[in-house]
Amino acid sequence: MAVLTDRPAAAPARRQQRAARTLATRFLGYATLVFFGLVFLYPFVIQIGNALKTEPDAAANPLSPFPDPLTLAGFERIFAGTNFPLWLGNSLLVTVLVTIGRVFFDSLAGYALARLRFRGRGGLFAAVIAVMAVPGVVLLIPKFLVLNQLGLYNSYAGLVVPLLADAAGVFIMKQFFESIPVSVEEAARIDGASIFRTFWSVVLPMAKPALITLTILSFQGSWNEFPHSLVSVQDPDLFTLPRGLADLVSGSLGKGTQYPLKLGAALLATIPVAIIFVVFQRYFVRDANDGSDKG
Amino acid sequence: MATETLTAAATAGGAGPRRSRGGIRSNENLAGWLFVAPVIVILGLFLLLPILMALWVSLTDWNGQGSPFTGDVPFVGAHNYTQLFTEDGLARRDFMTSLRNNIYYVAIVVPAQTVLALGLALVVNNRMLKGKSFFRSAFYFPSVTSSVAISVVFLFLFANSGAVNALLGFLGIDGPEWFADSRGVLHLLFGVVGVDSPPAALADGGPFGLTWWDWLAGPSVAMISIITLVVWTTSGTFMLMFLAGLQNVPVTLDEASTLDGASRWQRFRYVTLPMIRPTTFLVLTLGMIGSWQVFDQVYVMSQGDPAKTTLTPAYLSYRTAFRDFDYGSGAAISFVLFLIIIVLTLIQRRALAERDTDRPRRGLWRRRVPERS
Lengths: 295, 373
Fold this sequence. Notes:
The complex is a heterodimer.
Chain A: H1 2-6, H2 11-51, H3 55-60, H4 73-81, H5 84-115, H6 121-132, H7 140-150, H8 156-160, H9 167-179, H10 183-190, H11 195-206, H12 208-224, H13 227-232, H14 241-252, H15 259-279, H16 281-290
Helix pairs in contact in A: 2-15, 4-15, 5-9, 5-12, 5-14, 6-9, 9-12, 10-11, 14-15
Chain B: H1 2-13, H2 19-57, H3 79-85, H4 90-124, H5 132-144, H6 147-157, H7 163-170, H8 185-192, H9 200-203, H10 212-215, H11 221-247, H12 251-259, H13 264-275, H14 277-291, H15 296-301, H16 313-322, H17 327-355
Helix pairs in contact in B: 1-2, 4-11, 4-14, 5-11, 11-14, 12-13, 14-17, 16-17
Family (chain B): Belongs to the binding-protein-dependent transport system permease family.
Protein name (chain B): Multiple sugar transport system permease protein
Pfam families (chain B): BPD_transp_1
């Protein structure tokens, strides 16, 4: 504006220059987007393409997404020659149980920490914060020790029970419950509803967004969980998908690289999370955003 | 315990006219503990108790037979720790090698993923571009997939006749045998300037049982492929954090500096970067904390090979315990790693707490918290 009133004669040239620059910026922007779009998505394209190839074809043309000839042999062998169906079943069982457990227990604890006044609440919350800082990988040996000691090693209970609650989930729920106006609950309590009743039928329905977020995070987390299954079970009948997949790669297949088979198995293991990601994308994206935006 | 609380509260409330109020309090006291009980039991039993158990095991020579908590298990004091630092031997050499590997890994992964994440966020945040949400999702998608499944894909990409080498072949470059190549990248660079074997000054005498030449190896070619995978999977998450930070930069500030004649680079350097400094700090520290925990990828892709150049402390502790059945040493390595990560976490929390005194609890934890609104 200031420029315009200052020297009107120079304005058209400058505007043109700016338009050209905008165009160049835009072109560069799209070029960058497309380039990185390829970098981040093409590996999945390669994965799908090569899962449908024959082994020699995959070795000769690894970059090509088009199978020639197209074959389902890899997938047939996944179901006929490996324990994939078993791993799938185990993964489903573990994921469903862990997700239900986390959503229920984390909400209960989150509600108590947000709303109920009880002795030791402050200390407990501090403990939750502290527990979130404990890195998972240093728990490998500790978890094995306790499962072994409790006789839960090599059992479904060992796979599921230690994952039934998580500190981060408690934190998410606590933060959310604190954002709900307290008046509704007070009305319910005055009407004589018990604490649990108030929680269950008044507060929880209002917490739907947080519950969806927690469900998704728990599902994704337990579906992909690998180190825990590594130290909690040894029996191949109890392998979950990531564990079975890792086992395939480390050579249980026998001779040959068998990349089409491995890529196909990895693909099948990725599909559930991919579907959830596409359907509930805004929950994923919003979560990650919310961690660092303004308070 | 529950009944005790109840009685105590009831007695306290029994005095005087505030009786009914005391009743509600005691009710809440009991309910509060009941509500948190499942979480306390699970986290206590499978997180706190095991850490204490492992602390004990790290002071013994338990080999996995029977229970580690009987008198039969030899107690060795701090020996498992001292052999990692002060005694010359295989344990120290392996541990120091794993530290070296992980230091190089952190030194590349953290800057690379931070720069890439910021770059992607800047492009996706550009107001002039359309279709941004699609690309934002595309960049983020690898972050939500299974680390094992994605490692399988990268094993194929980096195979000898894999996609990466095919791509390099187009450029006329003969790609290496990624997962068989233990040569350090810095050694390769030294080789380019004619230094192929260690000069006498570096051939021995380095700290902690590794020669200076070994310390200066750089990440191996095999490690580079793991680094590529990790940068590729984590950048999306950090991009989202940067995006959130960028969205807090007031548009007016950007416009004002444009009117003042600031160039694009100047605006980025003197307006945007200072405004998102807290986010950058968060991304850098989260990156460092995460990079010391690399495990899944090593397990699937390289198992510490070739020539131990992808060994990391996390993987070494696992291998020492579950393959060599030396649970004491394995646990000791875990605790050293624990210490490294806790120190990084404390530094981060201290700095964030100072910054956020007016808005408590922000950034104390990672991403994924719905905001109070």
